[in-house]
Amino acid sequence: MVEGGISHADKTEFTECWRTAWRTPYIMKLALSAGLGGLLFGYDTGVISGALLYIREDFDSVDRKTWLQETIVSMAVAGAIVGAAMGGWINDRFGRKISILIADVLFFFGAIIMAVAPGPWMIILGRIFVGLGVGMASMTAPLYISEASPHRIRGALVSTNGLLITGGQFLSYLINLAFTHVPGTWRWMLGIAGLPALVQFILMLSLPESPRWLFRHGKEDEAKSILGKIYPAEELEDELQALKTSIEQEKQGEHPGESGIFSQLKGAWGNDVVRRGLYAGITVQVAQQFVGINTVMYYSPTIIQFAGFASNKTALALSLITSGLNALGSIVSMCFVDRYGRRRLMIISMIGIISCLVVLSVVFFQASASAPGVSSVETAYFVVLLGLYIIVYSPGMGTVPWIVNSEIYPLKYRGIGGGIAAVSNWSSNLIVSETFLTLTEHLGSAGTFLLFAGFSLIGLIFIFFLVPETKGLQFEEVEKMLQKGYSPFKKEDKTIEDRHPGN
Hints:
- By secondary structure, the chain is an all-alpha fold.
- The protein has one domain (2-207, 257-498): Up-down Bundle (Growth Hormone, Chain: A).
- Helix content is 81%, strand content 1%.
- Helix 2 runs antiparallel to helix 8 (185-191) and helix 14 (272-290) crosses helix 20 (414-466).
- The radius of gyration is 22 Å and the shape is globular.
- InterPro entries: MFS_dom (IPR020846), MFS_sugar_transport-like (IPR005828), MFS_trans_sf (IPR036259), Myo-inositol_Transporter (IPR050814), Sugar/inositol_transpt (IPR003663), Sugar_transporter_CS (IPR005829).
């Protein structure tokens, strides 16, 4: 199974994932049930782009004040920062399952608050509740899935969470379009998110805790029973032995009083493996946001109106195309992430993103320099480029950062490590979403997209130097690699990547 520290994952493809899931449907049950958190994550982050158009029509104060529009959009992100921070600690202290259940409760009540909101202030309150749930779900769902997946198909299964995120965003645009002429418009758009939260809550009550969390907390028999439903008999003992060895090594390095959150943070940063994992995990999460993706997902109807489509309904319909492409890209990621690797997909994705952002900037500049009004040719260019941007973003930078963060930390620090990285993601998201409209007012659309291209170039450089390849490796093998330290120029590390050529 393992030779020279590397699992033979070269032949693992999307079809292998489904063959395994077909033989062992329990794996897919766990992945899809936990992945509903991704659906809620995607829906609640995507739905506001269309709902905002109608909130502005109902409340003059929102229509007049750009900062109020930005706040309504961004308060979910602010809540997500807190939710991710709390979620990291809750994951390690109480388990992955409890974290998902708490997220569902927050989703449900946030949706109800927004649906009955009498004014902008209550919409903002509901967005904060939803954001808390989004933050917890964003790092817990991929973590739960990765710990309940055979390592050879772990990337593809965690990508199902990415597919459900993008699927949730696509669903949000469908719902937005469906309710454009229904009384209550935005109330239905925002309130309907309570239903999948309720469904997931019920499903999760019948599912087990993460087997790796159980093993780490002394419930070895229960963990072995669950792993026995995931791994074939000939692989189970090897997996249990690797897990037992890893936990014994972790416990040898423990110090009394490390159970508190601040002690855990201090311990995490003082651990070489965790710190190097955080360099990689935070890098990919920050880079994911500073390519400007959520300006497209949150404000795409507004951006499309900038390009000359004035009708709310037309802008929403065209935005449906971008979100559909995003979901399609997640399927591409599922097909190739275990074949070509995490690092390679992200580097290719970043190169494509930079190219698209530069060309989008040129198109916007030409449009602003031309006569008043936007020609049909310019709008066609814009829509095509926006679609290309989504296509190159989604399979790489869209899904892979969450996969990397679900598998790069030692078991003891997996919750807190994923939480720290998720906080960096949502903090970056907040900065980008809260400043986008203001940037377009001061720099213009061309200058804003060119700025994102510059940030993307910096992100590409950091990914190249700091992020190792983890495809096909057992969690314990990832720890050993980080213990030695990673460099793209080290012969040993290049050998690891060369053994996964992708064909």
